[in-house]
Amino acid sequence: MKLTQYGDYFYLYLLLLTFIPAIVLALKGINIKYYGLIVSIAMIYLIMGKTIGLIMFLMFLAGEITLIYGYLYLRKKNDSRYLYWAFLFMSIIPVIITKVAGLTRFAPYIGFIGLSYLNFKAIQIIIEIYDGRITEIKFIDFINFILFFPTLSSGPIDRWKRFEENLNSKIEKNEYVNEFLLVGLRKIFIAIIYKFIIAYLIDTYWLLNIPKEVNIINSINYMYAYTMYLFFDFAGYSLFAIGTSYIFGIKTPENFNKPFLSKDMKEFWTRWHISLSRWFGDYIFSRFVLDSMRKKRFRSRFTASHVAQIITMFIMGLWHGLTVYYILYGLYQGVALVLTDIYQRKSTFYKKNKNQKWFNCVQIAITFHIVCFGMLIFSGYLFK
């Protein structure tokens, strides 16, 4: 039997059963991490089933453990940049293989559920070992971090240092009840409304009823329907993952924050899939800009920033898949960010009116439509 994470009521029933021991342990002041690890292993087995995916997952886990602990040992003896790049590349190989395999008939046999998100965890650890921010990794804590089941399928993407600190912190009874249990249950309640009611209604009575013929009217209709469905489905999933994490004593970071109220595309990416955009911002965008300024690749920081935005969003597009519409989506988002920055820096009209309420309302409406058109590209609807 295979389960779909947060995808049906039977999974939610099993999830509820796992909550009971976690809550009892937490209320007694006992750290939940060992119980959480046992549940994670059991849930991963139930989600993946006895499939090739489970075998691929175990191979991935063994490979990344070897790479991370191998590099942690070598980094203490050698800070070579070439050694770092070699280990970084090796840590990325799993996601590269799965994206390339996605274009072939071998796609069903390569990869497993949540590979990309697990790979992000391994990659960031390699990077931070090189930076010197990570000098020691306790094995049980590391396995907890990699296997943490609430965020298995689609994040949110947590950070090792934050997770480790949260995992080992002592939580008092009142703190657990008020800051973890009640908050977690509230998020799960909202998730049920988002994913099983609103997203379901949008999909059933709007999205699926749009004629398959691709024309302007149908494309516009699909654009709005898909954008709203994607938000409520994915935000619902994220709230399930975050709420479950809280009940297991981990404050997994938020992933959505009213993204359709964004006044520009830069703000949008601080509100939409926040953990992913921050990951790309920290490990690709910021590093490219700093390295470019240090090596004087460009005349100004603005040029470096614009090139970094294009590269970052292009890579994000590739991460979603090696198809035309994902690549175009990445480039579209990169160009939108660059044009936003140029407009805000050079437009006197913008500078004069940016604090006006009417102007902010207009910006929100325009940004919403820029976002929706990007989602239309992302959906692949125009490429049928």
Automatic annotation (TrEMBL):
Pathway: Cell wall biogenesis; lipoteichoic acid biosynthesis
Pfam family, one: MBOAT
GO BP of this protein: lipoteichoic acid biosynthetic process
Membrane-crossing residue ranges in chain numbering: 6-25, 32-48, 54-74, 81-100, 106-127, 188-208, 229-249, 302-319, 325-343, 364-383
UniProtKB keywords: Acyltransferase, Cell membrane, Membrane, Transferase, Transmembrane, Transmembrane helix
GO function term, MF aspect, one: acyltransferase activity
EC number: 2.3.1.-
Bilayer topology annotation: Multi-pass membrane protein
Annotated family: Belongs to the membrane-bound acyltransferase family.
Protein name: Teichoic acid D-alanyltransferase
Annotated organism of origin: Clostridium saccharoperbutylacetonicum N1-4(HMT)
Taxonomic lineage from the root: Bacteria, Bacillati, Bacillota, Clostridia, Eubacteriales
Designated gene of the protein: dltB1
